Amino acid sequence: MTTTPRILSLAIAAGLTSAAFGAKSAELQPLLAKAGAGTVNESFNAEALSKQWTAAKGDWQVRDGALVGREKKEDEHAAVLTLAQPNHNSIIRFSFKLDGTDGLALSFNHAKGHLFRVSIGAEGVTIATDKDKKDADSKSEQLGKAAGKFEQGQWYTMLVEVQGTKVSVQSDNGVKVEGSHASLDVDKTGYRFVMRGAAVVLDDVKAWEVNP
């Protein structure tokens, strides 16, 4: 049977619409690096956070097998959750659901402070270096940006790879973005989840070393 252009267009549109939605714990294959030994495997099945996690700002509570983060007004600061897993090159995958938050970021620090972050908003993903708070002339530099829809109340899965000076980010709703900067090729102190707004839900956080 011959498919008419109009039917073909509708089929493509339907496929694009379904691809825009993500899922929890989706399998994503690394594009930049090769996964080595696993370093983190957290499904938040315990009643409280393990010692590997530190709630630096905000309120972070395990609820029904997932982690709910909320900004606290009295902090006058974004909610920050630190995962103490030092790394240099690494791969990290996590599932998230925006629940009234203005945005979510995965932030990387080094020994001297902030380094760079992957910021997730309703309209897409941005990779950018962080400003050095100790240097008045320092500025954030955007390394990459990709458009994509992240709906409230919908689960998505994201994979972030760091190898040397390069970063690769992909989400199961089809968003992909890469960036590079010489400053990224340093030891990192761990991972930080940063959010503003009502709430964000995290689950199934996994991380790996990178094989040479």
Category from helices, strands and their pairing:
mainly beta
Global outline = globular
Please, what is the average pLDDT? 90
- What is the overall number of helices? 1
End-to-end Cα distance, whole Å, is 51 Å
- Under CATH, the topology can be stated as Jelly Rolls
Q: Helix coverage percent of residues? A: under 10%
Specify the CATH class.
Mainly Beta
Extract low-pLDDT stretches: 1-19
As a whole number of angstroms, the C-alpha radius of gyration is 18 Å
Q: What is the CATH architecture assignment?
A: Sandwich
What order do the SSEs take from the amino end to the carboxyl end, as H and E? HEEEEEEEEEEEEEEE
Major sheet size, sense and barrel closure: 8 strands, antiparallel
Number of DSSP-assigned strands: 15
**How much of the sequence is in beta strands?**
over 45%
Q: Structurally, how many domains make up the residues? A: 1
Q: Give the full name of the CATH homologous superfamily.
A: Exo-inulinase, domain 1
